[in-house]
Design goal:
Blueprint: H1 3-13, H2 20-25, H3 29-42, H4 50-64, H5 67-79, H6 84-90, H7 100-115, H8 120-126, H9 132-155
Helix pairs in contact: 4-5, 4-7, 4-9, 7-8, 7-9
């Protein structure tokens, strides 16, 4: 599928204009195609449940101050079963009653963002809840959305207004 067709299709799926991120990254066609394949392996076709994936993305977007990704993923998070109250609290790191697995995941996200690693205690907290492939995916998901926040900020990509929920 040509890139322009994919970008237009993405706009139809979101019931609006094509996402600005796709329009801008599509200017480098070869890189855009490779990035899409990689990104799709993390979301939506990753090993982590979609709810957890969206929690991770929203937390990373909040930590990085990336309004584009935060706004883009609010609607997806709602479809994945994340409540409005959970969404409202995730970016500002409000205390919530997460499941033990979600708590372990969010702790790892915080440490990866702040320290670029996880300490032994966090590692021990993750191990009972996630398999080795899930841990690898979690860390790559965090890194991917940290990278996107950097690219979005550097390229000054504004949020897609039609996606805000």
């Amino acid at each position: 599928m040509p890139i322009w067709a994919f970008v237009r299709l993405a706009g139809r799926v979101t019931r609006g204009e094509p996402p600005r991120l796709f329009l801008i990254l599509g200017k480098n066609r070869r890189l855009f195609r490779s990035w899409l394949r990689f990104a799709a392996r993390l979301m939506p076709r990753g090993k982590l449940p979609r709810r957890e994936t969206e929690l991770v993305i929203l937390r990373v977007a909040g930590l990085c101050g990336c309004d584009y990704e935060y706004e883009h993923h609010v609607r997806m998070a709602r479809r994945a079963g994340v409540s409005r109250a959970e969404i409202d609290g995730i970016a500002d790191r409000a205390e919530r009653e997460w499941s033990p697995r979600e708590s372990a995941i969010l702790l790892a996200v915080e440490q990866l963002h702040t320290d670029r690693t996880v300490d032994d205690k966090t590692w021990e907290t993750l191990r009972p809840h996630l398999s080795d492939p899930e841990i690898v995916e979690l860390f790559m998901l965090v890194g991917h959305y940290e990278m996107l926040a950097l690219v979005i900020g550097g390229l000054r990509i504004r949020p897609d207004g039609h996606l805000a929920a």
